[in-house]
């Protein structure tokens, strides 16, 4: 279905880019990067900026018990299930200016264009900013969308702590108190009619193929584990090697064994150790504790379950004198999007003469947890060299505007003009 021509023209590339660059100042780090942890003062400052823009448009604002933020554009039928769009505002610690936040601002820009084009949709449209998608400050990611969708109880992560020892619950309560002026909704309400998330691809395929739009067909599965290797602190100069319970050495043995388990010439099973902590972390002391993260990904549910379930046994067998605990902190199975949203995205891209590709997502997204609730889908735009989770992450104003025009048209189709 072709979008009304005035809608496409109403999407303002410069206005969207200016908002993105203004947001990028909140948590700016060298190299054009951003470090904006969830539930931080910076996060609250960014949300206030967004709320201000939304209220200028006449949108109403609400939140919930996990601080998910909703910006509502009314339809002609206020009781109709809304079409939901959005993404996340928190960033990686060494992140970029576009991951997550573009999806939120694309939703705002699309709604503004719909209003300026004078298009009255039957369904309301809501723009959401999900809490803690990245899991950078508090692991795991996607806490906001997992709690909102009922995938996990909202108190599942109360005792998770950040590097400073602050619990998620304490940070959340502080945040909710600071935003006590916002009306709060029960989780999962109102149940959406459909969900569309716009996001940079975070991979190389669209750019390499000279393509404008990724029509996302699904998201591979992810499992996160935290491994603790417990040994004994000893003097580095006097303790014979044979008597040591060296947590670092056993961590290295465990990771080497896991590499053998997850070696995958097809580069499909992805295994990453991204975070390592050592205690007491002193150069002349044998470490008594080594803690490391495991991020395991695969598009096939059975492989993800089989390889992930094997991790504890492989680690135990590799140890020489230490003990280990393995805790799974994130478990998101692969999802395939039902045709409704990908098809609407494809129609919108085709009507605008854009080159598109149906493709799965290697990155996880909040959309994963909307799948059981409603037809869901995502729109990707290219990013330079496929780089993300790094300050040099970049998509051009033109590329992002194309994505927002497709989003606007898909929202109008799904919301029923
Ligand atoms: O880790 C991910 O896949 C997402 O980018 N947070
Ligand atoms: Mn993201
Ligand atoms: Mn990310
Ligand atoms: Mn995401």
From TrEMBL:
Keyword terms, alphabetized: Hydrolase, Metal-binding, Zinc
A GO molecular-function annotation: metal ion binding
Entry binding sites for Zn(2+) 2: 99, 134, 389
Required cofactor(s): Zn(2+)
Cofactor: record remark: Binds 2 Zn(2+) ions per subunit.
Domain Peptidase M20 dimerisation stretches: 218-302
Database matches in InterPro entries: Amidase_Cbmase (IPR010158), Bact_exopeptidase_dim_dom (IPR036264), Peptidase_M20 (IPR002933), Peptidase_M20_dimer (IPR011650)
SUPFAM superfamilies with a match to the protein in the record: Bacterial exopeptidase dimerisation domain (SSF55031), Zn-dependent exopeptidases (SSF53187)
Residues annotated to bind Zn(2+) 1: 88, 99, 199
Domain of life: Bacteria
Gene3D superfamilies: 3.30.70.360, Zn peptidases
NCBIfam families in alphabetical order: hydantase
Similarity comment text for this entry: Belongs to the peptidase M20 family.
Protein name listed in UniProt: Zn-dependent hydrolase
The organism's taxonomic lineage, starting at the top: Bacteria, Pseudomonadati, Pseudomonadota, Alphaproteobacteria, Acetobacterales
């Amino acid at each position: 279905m072709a979008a009304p021509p005035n809608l496409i023209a109403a999407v303002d590339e410069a206005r969207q880019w200016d908002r993105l660059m203004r947001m990028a100042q909140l948590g700016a780090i060298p190299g054009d990067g951003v470090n904006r942890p969830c539930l931080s003062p910076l996060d609250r400052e960014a949300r206030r900026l967004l709320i201000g823009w939304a209220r200028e448009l006449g949108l109403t604002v609400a939140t919930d018990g996990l601080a998910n933020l909703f910006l509502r554009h009314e339809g002609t039928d206020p009781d109709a299930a809304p079409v939901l769009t959005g993404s996340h505002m928190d960033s990686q610690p060494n992140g970029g200016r576009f991951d997550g936040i573009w999806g939120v601002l694309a939703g705002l820009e699309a709604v503004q264009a719909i209003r300026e084009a004078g298009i009255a949709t039957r369904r309301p449209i809501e723009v959401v900013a999900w809490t803690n998608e990245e899991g950078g400050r508090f692991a795991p990611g996607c806490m906001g969308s997992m709690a909102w969708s009922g995938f996990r109880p909202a108190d599942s992560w109360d005792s998770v702590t950040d590097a400073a020892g602050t619990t998620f619950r304490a940070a959340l309560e502080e945040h909710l108190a600071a935003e006590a002026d916002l009306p709060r909704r029960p989780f999962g309400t109102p149940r959406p009619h459909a969900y569309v998330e716009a996001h940079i691809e975070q991979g190389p395929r669209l750019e390499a193929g000279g393509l404008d739009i990724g029509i996302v067909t699904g998201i591979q599965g992810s499992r996160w584990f935290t491994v603790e290797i417990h040994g004994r602190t000893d003097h580095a100069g006097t303790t014979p090697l044979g008597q040591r319970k060296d947590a670092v050495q056993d961590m290295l043995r465990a990771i080497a064994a896991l590499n053998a388990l997850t070696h995958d010439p097809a580069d499909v099973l992805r295994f990453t150790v991204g975070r390592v902590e050592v205690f007491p972390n002193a150069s002349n002391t044998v470490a008594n504790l080594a803690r490391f993260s495991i991020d395991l990904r695969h598009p096939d549910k059975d492989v993800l379950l089989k390889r992930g379930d094997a991790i504890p046994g492989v680690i135990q067998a590799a140890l020489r004198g230490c003990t280990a605990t393995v805790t799974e902190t994130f478990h998101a199975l692969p999802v395939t999007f039902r045709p409704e949203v990908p098809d609407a995205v494809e129609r919108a891209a085709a009507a605008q003469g854009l080159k598109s590709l149906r493709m799965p997502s290697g990155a996880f997204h909040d959309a994963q947890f909307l799948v059981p609730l409603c037809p869901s889908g995502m729109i990707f735009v290219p990013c330079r060299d496929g780089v993300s989770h790094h300050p040099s992450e970049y998509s051009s104003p033109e590329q992002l505007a194309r994505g927002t025009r497709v989003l606007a048209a898909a929202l109008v189709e799904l919301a029923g003009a």
